[in-house]
UniProtKB/TrEMBL annotation:
Cofactor dependence: FAD
SUPFAM superfamilies xrefs: Ferredoxin reductase-like, C-terminal NADP-linked domain (SSF52343), Riboflavin synthase domain-like (SSF63380)
Keywords: FAD, Flavoprotein, Membrane, Oxidoreductase, Transmembrane, Transmembrane helix
CDD domains registered for this protein in UniProt: cyt_b5_reduct_like
Residue stretches spanning the membrane: 96-122, 184-202, 214-233
Coiled-coil region: none
Keyword Transcription found: no
Domain FAD-binding FR-type residue range list: 249-381
Protein's recorded name: Cyb5r2 protein
The species this protein was found in: Symbiodinium natans
UniProt cross-references to Pfam families, sorted A to Z: FAD_binding_6 (PF00970), NAD_binding_1 (PF00175)
Molecular functions per Gene Ontology: FAD binding; oxidoreductase activity
């Protein structure tokens, strides 16, 4: 929310600034020569200042770098996907249109003024949506129409030939940006031909120069030159991996791609987005530890008793259950590890778990479930930074205590750390910030619930930081399990026994300012087993992820 406001303010300030620049040179009737060049150069610099300030605001407020203003706008329930996609495309295209206008439009104040209004209007409309005065549908329709005004005015205020030529320029810029070309390269590529065209007809300038000057081909040439320079002489990536976030507060569809049993009680379920969103490169956008709510058909609807107890969910058609995706925020699928609760009369659960039975037994490949989210705070802010009791703690070592299916946030955190390691491949400075050690204690009833090592360090992640050691702690004694068994892969241990200070002491690094402990699992495990034990051992940076 804060980040969205900051970005909006920066965006509008840029328009106000260019409007004032244009007003100044019109006021003193100096629309040629050096005054004109100064005005246009200042406008172009304001584009880069805005991008830099927006980047700084993102880093400062420590939000997701891949969440854009457009991708996080809320939509109404059951909004058709083509409508949502049309709005998003239109908003992104309008942002591009505004920037192109600032770079090429010159001293005309009219368009700048017209453009300030829709962006301000959006902030006001969103406030009304939050206060329940208007619906998000009204907000989008009004904003959509207000953006149209600036296109219509653009068409009326310039010659049709100029307007059409700039549309081609914008389509090319839009497609290149959607493909992910670095935004600084993109806009420097446009500024240079505009500067050259200014000198071409010095000291006067009309929109005609852009038509006469080979702007488009010079821009493509500049992209190539800058791209080669960036690729071979700097560590800055030429393409950003930008992903629109799929998960939203309103329920959206997921389609089951595959289901696999990964231990005696755990199943791995992989879901796809509908093809339209898959094709557009969406990702879940969930940060480690955040979870979603899956809506499943209620098998206990109309039944007074469930597992021998009164059924509190007797009258609801769909159950809402929380699950934590295990993949990193940028992956194109949503993966869950779900604990299976079968019908088991001998254990006192004649009916079993409603959602888990549906997900692990009944759902077929190609079937749909609905999800909403994200829920839960963003406790991990990237590069080892955690938010602990309102303070940002930089961790070199992460220790995780997970009970049963509580291993899921741990896996997503581990994958996010590895993703950061992969991203820092060409940047030695960023490598210093990476988390170095990741120690996991996974407590479970019996050893056959243990996940195989490939869940922690798949072949594709071998050699990437952080180094991960996992100890599976089975509480049920198993004669087949030796006192301590080391699996062939380094860093995996299986043992049985209760969670105790001596076990934790042996596995986790000693408490210190840069050691963060995350705990996830059922309430009893967290409140009764983990928290008192960690307090006793003087671990101060403790985060409960569920
Ligand atoms: C923030 C959050 C994140 C979560 N993330 C995950 C996750 O990633 N993966 C995951 O698997 N779960 C996760 N859970 C738990 C999940 O939301 C459900 O509570 C769980 O799947 C059980 O739901 P159900 O409808 O199947 O059980 P219900 O029908 O609601 O049954 C209630 C309870 O009965 C007990 N029960 C039923 N059958 C048996 C049996 N045969 N043996 C023993 N006990 C039984 C279980 O304790 C079960 O929770 C999360 C919970 C929270 C709060």
């Amino acid at each position: 929310m804060l980040l969205r406001r900051a970005h909006n303010l920066i965006f509008v300030s840029r328009l106000v600034f260019v409007f004032l620049c244009a007003w100044c040179i019109n006021r003193y009737n100096a629309v040629a020569g050096w005054p004109l060049w100064t005005m246009m150069t200042l406008c172009q610099l304001s584009v880069f200042a805005q991008m830099r300030l927006a980047d700084l605001a993102t880093a400062w407020l420590r939000d997701d770098t891949h969440e854009t203003l457009v991708s996080t706008m809320p939509y109404w329930e059951h909004c058709p996907k083509w409508v949502e996609s049309m709005f998003r495309t239109w908003y992104s295209a309008s942002q591009i249109y505004t920037t192109v206008t600032i770079i090429i439009a010159g001293p005309g104040m009219d368009l700048y003024f017209v453009m300030i209004l829709p962006y301000q209007l959006y902030s006001v409309l969103m406030t009304f949506v939050r206060k329940g005065v208007i619906s998000s549908r009204t907000c989008h329709v009004t904003y959509f129409w207000s953006l149209w005004q600036s296109w219509i005015c653009g068409f009326m205020l310039r010659s049709p030939r100029f307007f059409i030529q700039t549309q081609f320029l914008q389509i090319l810029i839009y497609c290149t940006r959607v493909y992910g070309l670095n935004k600084y390269v993109l806009w420097i590529g446009l500024c240079i031909p505009v500067q050259l065209s200014l000198f071409h007809t010095w000291p006067t300038r009309s929109g005609q120069e852009l038509l006469d000057y080979p702007t488009m081909s010079t821009m493509i040439l500049m992209w190539l030159v800058l791209g080669i320079g960036l690729k071979f002489f700097t560590s800055t990536p030429l393409f950003d991996s930008r992903h629109a976030r799929y998960v939203e507060a309103r329920p959206k569809r997921l389609i089951l791609r595959s289901r696999e049993k990964v231990s005696s009680t755990l199943y791995h379920l992989r879901f796809d987005f509908p093809w339209f969103f898959r094709w557009q490169g969406y990702s879940s956008g969930l940060q480690p530890g955040q979870h979603v709510k899956l809506l499943c058909k209620n098998a206990s609807q109309g039944l007074k008793l469930w597992n021998g107890h009164g059924n509190l969910e007797m009258s609801v058609e769909h159950l809402s259950r929380s699950y934590t995706p295990i993949n990193s925020s940028k992956e194109p699928t949503v993966d869950f590890i779900v604990k299976y609760y079968p019908s088991d009369s001998s254990a006192g659960f004649a009916d079993g778990g409603r959602a888990s039975k549906l997900l692990c037994e009944e759902l077929k490949e190609g079937d749909e479930v609905w999800l909403s989210g994200p829920h839960g705070g963003k406790v991990y802010r990237g590069n080892g930074n955690f938010l602990v009791d309102g303070r940002v703690i930089k961790a070199d070592s992460i220790c995780a205590l997970a009970g049963g299916s509580g291993i899921t946030p741990v896996l997503s955190l581990l994958r996010q750390c590895r993703e950061e390691c992969r991203a820092s491949y060409k940047n030695p400075a960023a490598q210093q910030d990476l988390v170095k050690e990741f120690s996991v204690i996974h407590a479970m009833r019996s050893d056959d619930e243990r996940l195989s090592p490939m869940w922690y360090t798949p072949i594709t992640e071998l050699g990437l930081a952080p180094r991960c050691t996992v100890t599976s702690l089975a509480t049920k004694e198993d004669p087949a399990l030796k006192r301590q068994t080391s699996t062939p892969r380094e860093g995996m241990l299986a043992r049985y026994g209760k969670l105790s200070t001596s076990v934790v002491e042996e596995i986790f690094p000693a408490p210190s300012e840069n050691v963060v402990v995350v705990i996830c699992g059922p309430k009893g495990f967290v409140d009764e087993a983990c928290l008192p034990l960690l307090r006793e051992m003087n671990y101060t940076n403790v985060i409960t992820m569920w």
